[in-house]
Amino acid sequence: MERTFAIIKPDAVKNGVIGRILARIEQEGFRIVAMRLQHLSKREAEGFYAVHSARPFFGGLTDFMSSGPCVLLCLEAPDAIKTWRTLMGATNPANAEPGTMRKEFGASIDNNATHGSDAPETAAFELGYFFRGLEL
Ligand code: CMP
């Protein structure tokens, strides 16, 4: 079994599609290990995306991620990291495959509905950033 970290981003929460995204997560066979609705502060978003701090989109990304509540998730499945990234689709919804979360619910590369860890080390950092050991 493998665990990954996922976010239902503020755009998807505002658009009222939390339930539809969670339904797909469950249909695809993930176990939801932990889940929390949280409105990130700008500082919390900056710490989470610190790896992107030198990128030109960092300010806009962290403004957006602190613009409203998110759903934070720990998902478990045999190949959770890759399976969730495949279900999300390409970062830019315009390039995402039909049926993926970003194609169905994302509007732009910034407002792209969901996040998922890209590697085991990232998943460990991201899960530890938001969840306490007891929650997992
Ligand atoms: P996410 O998977 O949450 O990781 C970083 C986010 O930065 C990404 O999704 C996008 O929403 C956002 N982003 C904005 N511009 C870019 C870009 N040019 N390349 C990658 N990510 C971008």
From TrEMBL:
Protein role: Major role in the synthesis of nucleoside triphosphates other than ATP. The ATP gamma phosphate is transferred to the NDP beta phosphate via a ping-pong mechanism, using a phosphorylated active-site intermediate.
Cofactor: Mg(2+)
Organism: Luteitalea pratensis
Enzyme class: transferase
Reaction(s) catalysed (UniProt annotation): a 2'-deoxyribonucleoside 5'-diphosphate + ATP = a 2'-deoxyribonucleoside 5'-triphosphate + ADP; a ribonucleoside 5'-diphosphate + ATP = a ribonucleoside 5'-triphosphate + ADP
Family of this protein: Belongs to the NDK family.
Coiled-coil annotated spans: none
Gene Ontology BP terms: CTP biosynthetic process; GTP biosynthetic process; UTP biosynthetic process
Record's protein name: Nucleoside diphosphate kinase
Superkingdom as given in the UniProt entry: Bacteria
Domain Nucleoside diphosphate kinase-like intervals: 1-136
Gene designation per UniProt: ndk
Listed GO MF terms: ATP binding; metal ion binding; nucleoside diphosphate kinase activity
UniProt EC number: 2.7.4.6
Active site: H115 (pros-phosphohistidine intermediate)
InterPro entries recorded: NDK-like_dom (IPR034907), NDK-like_dom_sf (IPR036850), Nucleoside_diP_kinase (IPR001564), Nucleoside_diP_kinase_AS (IPR023005)
Compartments, as annotated in UniProt: Cytoplasm
Organism lineage string: Bacteria, Pseudomonadati, Acidobacteriota, Vicinamibacteria, Vicinamibacterales
Cross-referenced PROSITE patterns: NDPK (PS00469), NDPK_LIKE (PS51374)
Residues holding ATP: K9, F57, R85, T91, R102, N112
Pfam entry (one): NDK
Cellular component GO terms, alphabetical: cytoplasm
Gene3D superfamilies referenced in this protein's UniProt entry, alphabetically: Nucleoside diphosphate kinase-like domain (3.30.70.141)
Subunit structure: Homotetramer.
